[in-house]
Amino acid sequence: MRKLVVLFGLIGLLAACSTGVRAPAPANPHGDGPRVDAGGNYIEGQVIVGYAAGASADSLAAWLGGQVLQDWTPVRIAVIALPERLTVEKAVGLLARRPGVRYAEPNRVYPKVEPVPAVNPTGVDAMGLYSDPDFYKQWMHRQMNTEAAWAEGITGAGVRIGIHDDFVDHRHPDLAGNIAYPGFYGTTAELICPDTPHNGLGTHGSSVAGTAAGVANRIGGRGIAYEASIVPIAIDHPTQGFLTSVGIINGALFAAVGPEALGIPVPEGCGGYTPPDGRPYVDIVNMSWGGGVYSQATKDVMDFMLAYGVVLVTSAGNTPTTGFAEPAWFPGLITVAATQANGHRTDFSNRGVHLDVAAPGQNIWVPTTRHCILIDPTGASCTGDEADYTYIGGTSFSSPATAGAAALVLQAAGGAGTLDARQVRAILSETANDANADEYPGFDQDLGWGIVDAGAAVAKALAIRAGDEDAPAPAANLDIYVTDANTGTPLPLTGAALQPVDADDQPLTDRPILLSQTTGSGVFSDAGWASFYQIDPGRYAVFVSGPHWKKTGIVPGLAAGVITVPSGNWQLPIELDVQLPTDPYEPNDDTGSATPVSVGTTYKGILYADGGGDVDYYALPVTSGTSYYVNSETLSGSADLVLTVLDSDGSTVIAQNDNNQDFSKDALVTFTAAADATYYLKVEDGGNGNSPFNAYALDIATGPVAESEPNGAASVSGTAITGVDLTDAQSVALGSVVSASLDPSGDDDIFAVTLTAGATLVVDAETASNGVPDTMVAVYDAGGTQLAFNDDFTGRESRLEFEPGADGTYYVLVTAWDGDGPGGTTGDYTLSLTALDTP
Amino acid sequence: MIKRLLLGSVLALLMAACGDFPGGKATISGYVVDMKAGEPVVGSTVTVLRTGVSTTTDENGFYSVKVRPGRHTLVFQKEGYATSRVEGLMTFGPETHYSTIQRPLFDPAVPADPPRLWVQLPDWYEPGDEVTVTVSGQVRNAIANSFVFLDVAIGQQGGSSGYLNGFVRHERVFNFDGSEVQVTLSTEGYSDVVPVYTVAYDANNNRTEVIRYLYRQPDADAAAPAQPANLSGEAVTFGDIAVFGTMSVPSITAQGVVTALKTRDLDTLQSMAKELSAARGNVGLMGSELRKAISWVDLSFSYDPSAPAPEAFEIFRKRADEEDFAKIARIAAGDALQDEEAGLYAFRDASPGVQPGVLLTYRVDAVNGEARASSDTFNLTPLPPFYVEALSPADNVTGVDLAPGYVISVENSADVNFLAAIVLDRVQSDGFDVEYFSPIFVVPGSDGAFHPFNGFEGIPHGVVEIDGGYGLTGAILQPFHAYDWTPFAVTASLNAEGTAIEAVSIGADFFNLWGPFAVEDGPFNTFVTGAGGSQ
Question: What positions does UniProt annotate as the active site of this protein (chain A) (predicted)?
């Protein structure tokens, strides 16, 4: 900006001389030059005007009675000489209210701003002149030293960044030039092509994309890697806007392998890209989202992308907390905290040993989804001139700023594929600006290794490319394969932890312990694999424990040791001595050996056989005209349960169900018996899984019985249930299913059932949609004491088992989570009350 | 009406005539804090423009200047801080109180010049009228700056926080960019001189406030109101500043919060946490000292439900180091109403001057036209921040005992501490399982001392029930498995009789057991168990 002032000042001097306009001047130490006001702040007799598109500097000057000294049309800024007696202050006041004026300012003389040493040693002086008029609102460039990278000709060109986020406004004028089609809408599994309408909801993704790679042009600002390609990968729900697991998973697959490998043809006019051999479809994926719970499905897709060579960059989270966040904590990712302009962490930025680096994340000025698109996603209301921007904050923007820096590093190193993800992470960490070194030298839990310095990172990458420096060691990729020592069965639900240690096996306490769990069957790989991809090579203490004690009910096997993992791909087989669960009703693989069962009972089986294809048959005597309800519920594992009811001939299908809900892979059938006979219930895995951990429960009940209101009441807040009133509880026979609903808001349903000591009651509430209602179930004694409770068992529906100590009447309460509060839900449900079989 | 108008004009003229008010000098004083419900800004230079008068704020953020009566512009400046500026502040008597917020400067490379604001609104109004305020503005250093927020409030200053401004009648404009905006506010419940506060912030945290006044002759015939009764309150010191930005969820009503606080109902809770985390999430939107005091006071009082409600209530407050009560707010009765049948009212004082360790005395006046009735006074002292560290199991360690004792240290204990340990199985296996939730221990406070849970060297796990709410089964931890744990830690001071909680300071409360919001920046330690002994 100071260069601009000097330039216009000189022109002002020339103009003043040539027109002979001279204002009465006080003593001017600068002689016949532009006069500076007594405060030393601005040049007298001139004003700088930023004018809007369609306005004219000449007409503004004429209106003031002055004249245009300089009109810089690409950015619509003009310097106007004022007539005598019109002071700068007055002119600024007049102009500021004038239509067509974006801003009006004195022609300032900027004081030299001392650079803030901890933030950026090259400071403000490094600023050149940029075409983007909002460039100086983007302090992130200053803090990340991106201009030094650009000065080397490194702009991110040739590098593809997948924005794994909500729907990007891909035709926004400050993004459109960098969009590389096709993108992908993960939730609907459709391509994003140039004419694909926006979904009308996403605004976050537009700002994330703009931070990483907003276009350098004459509008707005620009991104860190302003010539990188943006591949939009939308993962939000088309009408509700929240992020979906389907979107996350499909989006990740697309990022790794692209449309053709997924069997989606790319139509004419939708761009197209064939990755070079061995390269993924996008080079970098930015994930500015996260949750607070480990999810194996998310871990699997992260590993899938890493295995394909994608560099993954993610936001640390905005809680703030030192606690778990995914995918931020998954091994192999670049995790980024957020900074303010003064170089400190923001108030909201997550902290901890899992941080890698930090980048600007507050008051970030970037594109946002155009308002005309939010009104009409097809773009029909847009005139083409709109380009909306916003200030925005969050580690969501620190992440794409770093993804942009990663793109710069890759280009400098010779292109995507010349460095692996671990090497990119190492370069960014090693060259980061340790801005809080005076308080916390080196790694710290606020900023990780420091604030990303794109200039220094690019310089290092260029030196590596030129052979002047060695690249950091390539990644170590470790797969731990856990099996049962006795049978060789791969073990799911087994945790593996890697703790970095030194040469003496002492823990390196400021490096994070890496955590993973073995895969279940059938999703991305076979069961039993715990992966640690793109980790630092080195020495680790390993701890293996599983299968998960509480989830499988078996005693876990344990293993521990110290390993050295060099760069490269490694497998570590681990055998654990465990007692695998067995199905007590086997063999029951055909109608001939079907397990005899009776109505009103729950049976627990396992779909597992040597060689696979286990099918379990149960023989149920039925009475003509009676209605039956058979529910199969996953207890552990990942079977896609399919339930079939067969006639006594063993082959005529009376009823069949694969999924009775969109949020589970369980099955449920209801049928009315046409005769007194023996029907067969067949349970199998529609996903062809095969694991001793694929356990299910089979509830067999009669009914439904209609609910009768009133049937009890309680006060429910969150998971807390108080003031239970058992009056009018509806008596229901054990073995029945009740058709009921929680309605209106605040409804509670209590059912009285007679139980026998030692016979475990199974209570199961089924809803068609997840959380509609969000049920809770509990068991009370006659005195109103709670004896058992469950909130969420499968999705948000509930299930529990309760073993009564004595014969008597017990009360089963069904209510909604936070039923009497603002989070309460209503809706229909069925409730089955059965006795657990003891085989 | 004409008579009122004339009176209004004369009064306005009288007040606008700078320097001609009989009696000489007027005093303007108040407090400067660094954010809503924040801490004092010490050593800020306060300048009254065009008078040559200036002073600096003391260690309580307090300033006081003597000026000619009339309308004034004050500017607050400090190295490293943005500039706050207020225009149109009128002295209506010998003492005028004005407090403000002065934020740290966001970007040291951009000068701290406050923006310009132009505000238009009528001077007078009829009872219950709506007034339309027209605002436009311009930031300084526009090449590197923009507006980020505009607020227009009537009766008392507002701000961006939904929760802390829960009792303010205001409208927030988050996309203000300087171009003209119109805001309409109701004048229901107001009379006499009512200030309208228009505040805008730019991206560098510079703050410009324009105060204008609405005037309506108070009703001289209004019936005398009843005396407000049962004035009580609770001071809250809150251990998490991240939640009080613009992501506060305004739909959470004050009533539920106040009720929960008053009845000490620990069972009432996580509903707000779920709603809040849905609103905030981790996706987007969303000097960073963790050791900061955010403090406010929640007041409640009753007013005879069988009597007609007064026009408004005026809240008066006096700090121990002040001589007189000062009016800190006027709130329409309808805006303070919590329970019509019971005649319960509430008000949240998040204004500057609420400060840990400083005794505050409150009084509430019911105002009806020119008549008023005062409540008895009530006093309390806000607590300092309650600092808690999770010592053992430590963070990022292995080899932890299978039945560890959970040890924390605390600082700034008051009369009684509420402590618990919450252990989760969520970092290495699917889902969010609460592995163990200790009982909530209520222990006497003592400063700086170690607080292992009494009698629990190695905590036995089992079924536990908390206030009859819910029970969780915890088994011995699985060997070689990763868990994480966080403490719940709240300290409270009791009233003189020991019958009620007077002030509370929330150190760590990730799951929002106490309310109103979760304190999520407390410690969370992730650890891996060892092999254990024989199983």
Answer: 165 (charge relay system), 204 (charge relay system), 396 (charge relay system)
Name the fold adopted by B229-380.
Answer: Immunoglobulin-like (2.60.40)
Verify whether the Cβ–Cβ distance B285 to A396 is below 8 Å. Answer: yes
A85: CATH: 3.30.70.80
- Do both A572 and A602 map to the same domain? no
Residues from chain A contacting residue B140 (CB–CB below 8 Å): 105
Q: Is the pTM of this model over 0.90?
A: no
Architecture of domain B2-216: Sandwich (2.60)
Task: Answer whether B245 touches A (CB < 8 Å).
Answer: yes
Q: Is the pLDDT of residue A28 over 50?
A: no
Domain extent, residue A690, equals 591-702
Residue A771 sits at the chain B interface (C-beta within 8 Å)? no
Considering the domain architecture, whether residues A231 and A364 belong to the same structural domain is answered as: yes
Let me know if residue A52 belongs to a domain. Answer: yes
Rounded CA-CA distance B141/B146 in Å is 9
**Weakest-pLDDT range from A75-89, B173-187, B451-465:** B451-465
Predicted confidence band at B500 (pLDDT cuts at 50, 70, 90)? confident
Q: How many residues does chain B have?
A: 535
Contact (CB<8Å) A822/B138: no
Give residue A123's pLDDT band: very low, low, confident or very high (50, 70, 90): very low
Whole-number pLDDT of residue A540: 98
Candidate ranges A77-86, A315-324, A522-531; pick with highest mean pLDDT: A315-324
Mean pLDDT of chain A: 88
Q: Which residue intervals of B294-443 are DSSP H helices? A: 333-336
E-strand ranges in A38-178 read 42-51, 67-72, 77-81, 101-108, 160-165
Residue B505 has pLDDT above 50, yes or no: yes
A137–B203 CB contact, under 8 Å: yes
> Which residues are CB-neighbours of B91 under 8 A, at least 6 positions away?
B21, B26, B28, B67, B69, B70, B72
The verdict on residue A9 lying in a domain is: yes
Residue A288 touches chain B, beta carbons under 8 Å? yes
- Whether A141 is a known active-site residue: answer no
Residue A586 half-sphere exposure, CB side, CA atoms within 13 Å? 12
The answer to whether residue A722 scores a pLDDT higher than 80 is yes
Average pLDDT over residues B77-84: 96
Same domain assignment for residues A344 and A461: yes
The number of angstroms, rounded, from the C-alpha of A207 to the middle of its chain's C-alpha atoms is 15
**Pick from B107, B397, B471: CB nearest A789:** B471
Asked if A119 contacts A436 with a C-beta cutoff of 8 angstroms, the reply is no
* Phi, psi (deg, nearest 5) at residue A471: -70, 155
What spatial distance separates the first Cα and last Cα of chain A, rounded to whole Å? 83
What is B387-529's CATH number?
2.60.40
Please state the rounded mean pLDDT for residues A757-767. 95
Residues 38-67 of A with CB under 8 A from B: 50
Is A582 a member of any domain?
no
Q: Are B388 and B477 in contact (CB under 8 A)?
A: no
Confirm or reject contact between A241 and chain B (CB < 8 A).
no
- Residue of chain A minimizing CA distance to B253: A822
Chain B residue closest to A100 (CA)?
B179
In a domain, A131, yes or no: no
- pLDDT digits 0-9 by tens, A677-714: 999 999 999 988 888 888 999 999 999 999 999 999 99
Q: Is pLDDT at B456 greater than 50 in this prediction? A: no
d(CA B418, CA B505): 10
Active site residue A741: no
Residues on chain A touching B521 (C-beta within 8 angstroms):
319-321
CATH number at residue A610: 2.60.120.380
Q: Do A321 and B524 touch (CB under 8 A)?
A: yes
Range in A170-179, A733-742, B291-300 with the lowest mean pLDDT: B291-300
- Are both A697 and A646 inside the same structural domain? yes
Three-state secondary-structure class, residue A631: strand
A821 and B CB contact within 8 Å:
yes
The ipTM is: 0.84
- The whole-angstrom separation of Cα B417 and Cα B442 is 6
